[in-house]
Amino acid sequence: MVEEIVSGICATLIAIILHELAHGLVARALGDPTAQNAGRLTLNPLKHIDNFGTVFLPLFLAVSQIATIGRIDFMFGWAKPVPVNPMALEINGQHNPRRLMALVAVAGPVMNFVLAFLGALALHGGVLVDFLTYFILINLVLGLFNLLPMPPMDGGRIAVGLLPLPAARVLAKTERFGILLVLLVLFILPSALRQVGVHFDPFHDGLNAILPAAMNVVLHLAGVKNGA
Length: 228
What we know:
This protein is mainly α. The protein has one domain (about 1-220). About 65% of the residues lie in helices and about 0% in strands. The chain contains 9 helices and no strands. Helix 5 packs across helix 9 and helix 6 (about 155-160) packs antiparallel against helix 7 (about 165-170). The protein is globular.
């Protein structure tokens, strides 16, 4: 039990910290030194910890799942967001804050998908298989979850960068309460409705449909046969 909890939490920490680091590195490559000046372009986990998203939530999810179903089926969390100044972003002297913020946003999910692939490659070594399996799944979940098209999720910021300006402005205005809406619809409401016998769980239903296919793709690309 303790080993599973530690494996799940360690894998989550790596996934969410490198996710945020990817945002900062791409922003720096596009000319914005904000994250660097804040000391966030580092692998030091203490610089990225969010008390709730990095510590409490992963621990709660790990312990509650081990206690109820005897295994960890789902793990989630987040690190402290890396600060980015959209007005400082540029390519070849050209400033387009909306489009370039989309590039910064996509870096996080891309990092998680790359980490999932690297985890699958590491399976060839035949060691730490349980940890690597958690690591692959957690990175896939985090990458897919962050592609939800609602700010402040990365998918929402990507959508703001790609949509026509009027629609982008409307979507951008939802960022101040977006995370509350995401937590309400995807986590709190399903739990409340479950108590009265009503099934409403779009996130887990969608994840159950997409995640096995995503896992198979990653394992196939890494040349792993039969999940081993």
